[in-house]
Specification:
Elements: H1 3-15, E1 26-32, H2 38-49, H3 51-54, E2 59-65, H4 76-82, E3 87-90, H5 92-95, H6 114-136, E4 138-144, E5 149-153, E6 167-170, H7 173-181, E7 185-188, H8 194-200, E8 205-209, H9 210-215, E9 224-231, E10 235-240, H10 241-246, H11 249-281, E11 295-297, H12 301-326, H13 330-342
Parallel strand pairs: 1-2, 1-3, 6-7, 6-8, 9-11
Antiparallel strand pairs: 3-10, 4-10, 5-8, 5-9
Amino acid sequence: MSHLSRIAKGLAVAATLAPAPLMAQTTINVLGGFSNQYQNAEIEKPFFEGLEETTGGAIAARFRSLDELGLKGYDAFRQLQSGVFQVMEISPGYVSGDDPFVLGLDLPGIMPEIGMAKEAIDAYRAPLQKRVREKFDGEVVAIWPYPASMLFCRGELNGLADLKGKKVRVFSPALNDLVTTFGATGVTLPFSEVYPSLQRGVVDCAIAASLSGYEAKWHEVTDTLFSLPLTWATQLHVANGSFWDGLPEDQRATLTTAFKDMEDEMWSVAATATDQGVACNTGGDCPFGEPADMTLVEYTAEDEALLEDAVKSAVLPGWGEECNAGYDACTAIWNETVGAATGYSID
């Protein structure tokens, strides 16, 4: 089945969730992330399934996940504009082909600490909201991170220099620029296709959140976890703009508060979940199941220097050139927001 056929099939299934007319209670159709990721299963899904209670009966949600509908996430903005879903979780790395500006909040290698990530993303929030509304008629209602993304590899990986000649699963153009700098070949794959690709040797390594990789059982098909945080795989929850504007003011206010609470909870678990993911994959104390026996390789000062060089020489110039081509204010905004928070600048 072709990619477009799969999308059409997924939308056909989703179309059975036609939105109810606005009455005393509003029912919204929601597309969430992949169901086998901790924050999606334990925070996102319960949040939407409990929305009717949270809002005192004013708003209810019909919740579906990407994998449940057989969707990949690359067409998220187009699906949002279609109005089939009123709220969607959207991965900037997956949709940056539609507008590179959205990836500016989480370029790899620039914010290893979660506190810095929070400061940078908060600085970028207002211009991102404005851009998504103008270009896609979407209302960004929440921004939050997965645990830190790391390298899961078949065989040994003792440092970034060892990536030379390897095929590495990436999920954004900027990550592709990063691994290419080290002599690797980037292979873009949705999360659901990574396990079999590792199993068959289609890729040698894959980048994902430490806990997400554990819960997807990547430890069954990889041997080494390299601990250097590369990105937070930051996610957006975005509402269809026409739907959002059509809500009564009190319902918009109620939803705004509820989304802020969900976002805060997502941030509160991201750092802890990073450490738990490392422990679960490498024989430590694991609250989510039996610990795996991957080898944990700690990064060195040499790896940090290599990463910084790659960011300055490839990641930032590559993204900046692409983003400015479609939005001439792109890097100026980025320098004033994310750049100021992280200490980087794009010329």
